[in-house]
Amino acid sequence: MASTESRLFDVAQYTALGAWAALAVAPRTTVARAVTAATLVGCSGVYAFLIARGMTTEPMPEASLATLGGVRELLQGSGPATHAACWVHYLAFDLGMGLFEAELAGRLELPQAALWLSLPLTLMLGPIGLLTFCALAAGHAAWQGRLEDTVSGLLSSGRKRD
């Protein structure tokens, strides 16, 4: 029988993949965004449970998060709840970035093809996908002659400029 950690890992993994599929197919729809937001909330709950379980049932190695060696010691000395929590953490944050990209693409009126490039990169490589999206968004704004509509400018105003 699979452990609780293993089952939660599987649920989070496959649910997140479903949300990614919704974003890839129909990123501008309310349904895709709602599915993604609900998945983020669910992954956050799974993460909280796994962290609590790890802190109460697994040995906590004496390690520092200030060095790479310390992080390695922490992960090597921890158990399945902590390992699953680490992966769910990645799933949630990368999916959150994907939702951010879809939302901002709608405000910027980016072609869906831009998301077809950035979303798979965000799914697999996180920050590289976000960087790709930002470059595409800035290029699109420049192409449209709206250099003032950079990603940072749009984020700070919270609305599309006319």
UniProtKB/TrEMBL annotation:
Keywords: Membrane, Transmembrane, Transmembrane helix. The keyword Transmembrane helix applies. The chain crosses the membrane at residues 31-52, 113-138. This is DUF4281 domain-containing protein. It comes from Cafeteria roenbergensis. The lineage of its organism: Eukaryota, Sar, Stramenopiles, Bigyra, Opalozoa.
